Amino acid sequence: MHSQGSDYLDIGTNPRVGTKRYMAPEVLSEQIRTDCFESYKKTDIWAYGLVLWEITRRTAVNGIVEDYRPPFFDVVPSDPSFEDMKKVVCVDQQTPVIPNRLFSDSVRLRRGLGGASQGPQFWGTRLQSAHGGAMSSGW
């Protein structure tokens, strides 16, 4: 139950619900404030960033399109455990790599769409800021 007036949230005792691969660092480390709805909005930003990463891998640039892979495909098993994801995201602070080919698309660079001309550091700073500093600045 959520109360908009007080931002109070009652979801029970288990905050680790959902697809493990998309869980935000504060959920994996069990540091999320389970009584505050705003905390869940921030975890949604993390998951949204991973969905955007998936889209960028499948975006054709200069005729190149990468095969679909889920986030962290190269560092965790196909069905990762909470512990697998916690190690990769919280301990090792890894984030998916943005394909370099996206920065060679002259149309996107010329138009300045979405900060593409600013490189990965721009995106890491933007997402880190939106996520309350919980993300690695390299993403």
Q: What is the CATH topology assignment of the domain at 2-96?
A: Transferase(Phosphotransferase), domain 1
CATH class of the domain at 2-96: Mainly Alpha
Q: What oligomeric state best describes the polypeptide chains here? A: single chain
Distance between the termini: 34 Å
The main sheet comes to: 2 strands, antiparallel
Helix proportion: 25-40%
Report the order of strands and helices: EEHHHHH
- State the strand order across the main sheet: 1-2
**Are there runs of 5+ residues with pLDDT below 50, and where?**
112-131, 134-139
What general outline do the C-alpha atoms trace? elongated
Q: Count the strands?
A: 2
Question: Mean pLDDT, nearest integer?
Answer: 76
How many H/I helical runs? Answer: 5
Question: Any idea what the CATH superfamily of the domain at 2-96 is called?
Answer: Transferase(Phosphotransferase) domain 1
Structural class: mainly alpha
Report the portion of residues in β strands: under 5%
Name of the CATH architecture of the domain at 2-96:
Orthogonal Bundle
Rg, Cα atoms, Å: 17 Å
Can you offer a commentary on this structure?
Residues 1-139 form the Protein kinase domain. GO terms for molecular function: ATP binding; transmembrane receptor protein serine/threonine kinase activity. It comes from Anas platyrhynchos platyrhynchos. This is receptor protein serine/threonine kinase. The protein has 139 residues and is mostly helical. It has a domain at 2-96: Transferase(Phosphotransferase), domain 1 (Orthogonal Bundle), CATH 1.10.510. Helix content is 37%, strand content 3%. The chain contains five helices and two strands; from the N terminus they run ββααααα. Strands 1-2 form a two-stranded antiparallel sheet. Strand 1 (2-3) and strand 2 (8-9) form a beta hairpin. The chain is elongated.
